[in-house]
Write a structure and sequence with these properties.
Layout: H1 2-14, H2 22-38, H3 42-51, H4 57-61, E1 79-82, E2 87-90, H5 112-118
Antiparallel strand pairs: 1-2
Length: 123
């Protein structure tokens, strides 16, 4: 965060004393540096800071939307129990009469790290 603020404060000073058209080269160089380090242009960084979303021209180059949108949560994994001859799956395991053991154990929900990554904003 400090790096972005420092970079934004130094950009107006970078063109001091340059001839006509020299400031375009400085701006292009600053954007190339920003793309290689933070994967977005300087205007993208400003838009991302203002909106709180992860926005980047690099995403447009990859045929994605300009701003990253969180994906909807996956549906809950059904709770399957063994019955006579086959498995019966329940959407809500609290409705089970005897809460039988599950046939196969799997992930029931997203981990806290996955949820944090899903809902992250930039920076």
């Amino acid at each position: 965060m400090r790096f972005v603020i420092a970079l934004l404060c130094l950009i107006p000073l970078a063109g001091c004393g340059l001839g006509a058209g020299g400031d375009l080269g400085v701006a292009a160089g600053a954007n190339v540096l920003a793309i290689t380090t933070i994967h977005r242009t300087i205007p993208d960084a400003v838009i991302s800071l203002v909106t709180g979303k992860d926005c980047s021209m690099v995403r447009l180059d990859e045929n994605k939307s300009y701003c990253r949108h969180p994906h909807p949560l996956p549906p809950p994994v059904p709770y399957c129990t063994q019955t006579l001859g086959n498995a019966t799956c329940w959407a809500d395991p609290s409705q089970l009469p005897d809460h039988a053991p599950q046939v196969a154990a799997g992930p029931y929900q997203l981990s806290p790290l996955q949820l944090a990554n899903r809902d992250r904003s930039w920076p």
